[in-house]
């Protein structure tokens, strides 16, 4: 019995060692899954500090750009619950829209907009932004700050007063100063990895040209350099004219920033901007307006800052059978160097033009109570382009 007991102990010891190795391996694997920050660009790819490729698989969480001045859902669910769902769905980053009005006026947030988070009561909008970004960072979710509009409101129309990077109320000098302010505010937060200089340029904006008031290429260069002068480690996402659907000007007039390996082009895509749902024609149309940038010099990565559809994949006016979204996801799959960001996370609408506070957000990934996933078919589709949900 003594020899058997000794053998049993030895077997148990070996088993314990094996379990320990397996656990350690799992922990190492999990640690490796997180990028080594900061990020920069290398050719057509975004890479981390160890030069490992990083695909930004993002979701838009709007609200700091809206009339409530806080992200949607804080009135329905604890912040930790919403962040946990983002992590569980498998997103590694969040595009967080904000308005110049939110930063400059920094109002105290209305109680109704944060009623599920009493710890936020009485706080100003930017204090809430600090807390939201801190929660995302603790979950190891990267953040891209997006200057969505000047005046807080729902976007977008040609004549909404938010189509350029400036307005009468918010001149370019304020836009540049605000970017410096927000870049300085988060320059010691490593999980804030990028800035999206301005959302969906329209209202006559062009890439280049003789009219300085409409030349977005020159303004984006000034804006990017302003950000990098304060926080040189950030990626700088640059959208294009015509609601960020047309980058043809960049073929002969690329953006060069003072800090190299920071520029990223960010086209948008929706079914209502498409002329067809046939895949070959969809591919051709996107390649002509933005996809061709993956073949140009200098090599600059692409991150699709917005694309979206009805959460059900059916019954969507401009994409009634979900053919466009399936085709677009196929395009992304065939170009694995592309990063992307789905619009939106939100389960409900914020107040704004043509919007009704707390009405269902039909494109949203979350339910109206922000407690559950409302679009499982979409998430299953996104598995084909790298999304890895956590069980």
TrEMBL record:
**Which InterPro entries is this protein grouped with?**
GH, Glyco_hydro_5
Organism (species): Alloacidobacterium dinghuense
Q: Which family does it belong to?
A: Belongs to the glycosyl hydrolase 5 (cellulase A) family.
Q: Which GO terms describe its biological process?
A: cellulose catabolic process
What is the name attached to this protein's record?
A: cellulase
Keywords from UniProt, A to Z, are:
Carbohydrate metabolism, Cellulose degradation, Glycosidase, Hydrolase, Polysaccharide degradation
Pfam families, A to Z: Cellulase (PF00150)
Taxonomic path: Bacteria, Pseudomonadati, Acidobacteriota, Terriglobia, Terriglobales
Question: Where do the Glycoside hydrolase family domain residues begin and end?
Answer: 48-347
Q: E.C. number, please?
A: 3.2.1.4
What reaction is this protein's catalytic activity? Endohydrolysis of (1->4)-beta-D-glucosidic linkages in cellulose, lichenin and cereal beta-D-glucans
State any single GO MF term: cellulase activity
């Amino acid at each position: 019995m003594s020899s058997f007991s000794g053998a049993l102990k030895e077997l148990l010891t070996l088993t314990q060692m094996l379990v320990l190795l397996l656990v350690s391996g799992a922990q190492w694997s999990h640690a490796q899954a997180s990028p080594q920050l900061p990020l920069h660009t290398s050719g057509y790819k975004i890479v981390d500090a160890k030069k490992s490729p990083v695909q930004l698989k993002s979701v838009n969480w709007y609200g700091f750009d809206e009339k409530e001045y806080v992200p949607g859902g804080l009135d329905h669910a604890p912040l930790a619950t919403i962040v946990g769902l983002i992590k569980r769905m498998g997103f590694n980053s969040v595009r967080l829209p904000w308005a110049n009005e939110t930063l400059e006026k920094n109002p105290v947030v209305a109680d109704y907009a944060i009623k599920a988070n009493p710890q936020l009561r009485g706080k100003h909008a930017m204090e809430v932004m600090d807390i939201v970004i801190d929660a995302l960072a603790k979950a190891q979710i990267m953040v891209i700050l997006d200057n969505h509009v000047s005046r807080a409101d729902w976007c977008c129309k040609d004549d909404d007063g938010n189509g350029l990077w400036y307005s009468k109320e918010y001149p370019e000098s304020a836009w540049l100063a605000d970017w410096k302010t927000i870049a300085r505010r988060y320059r010691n937060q490593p999980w804030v990895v990028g800035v999206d200089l301005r959302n969906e340029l329209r209202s006559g904006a062009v890439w280049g040209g003789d009219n300085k008031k409409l030349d977005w290429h020159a303004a984006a260069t000034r804006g990017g350099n302003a950000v990098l002068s304060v926080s040189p480690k950030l990626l700088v996402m640059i959208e294009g004219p015509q609601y960020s659907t047309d980058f043809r000007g960049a073929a002969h007039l690329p953006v060069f920033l003072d800090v190299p390996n920071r520029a990223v082009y960010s086209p948008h895509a929706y079914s209502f901007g498409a002329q067809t749902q046939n895949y070959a024609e969809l591919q051709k149309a996107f390649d002509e307006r933005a996809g061709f940038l993956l073949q140009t010099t200098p090599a600059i990565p692409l991150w699709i800052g917005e694309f979206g559809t009805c959460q059900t994949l059916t019954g969507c006016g401009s994409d009634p059978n979900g053919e466009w979204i399936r085709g677009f996801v196929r395009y992304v799959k065939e170009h694995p160097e592309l990063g992307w960001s789905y619009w939106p996370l939100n389960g409900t609408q914020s107040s704004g033009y043509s919007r009704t506070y707390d009405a269902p957000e039909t494109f949203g990934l979350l339910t109206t109570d922000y407690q559950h996933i409302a679009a499982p078919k979409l998430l299953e589709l996104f598995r084909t382009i790298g999304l890895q949900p956590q069980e």
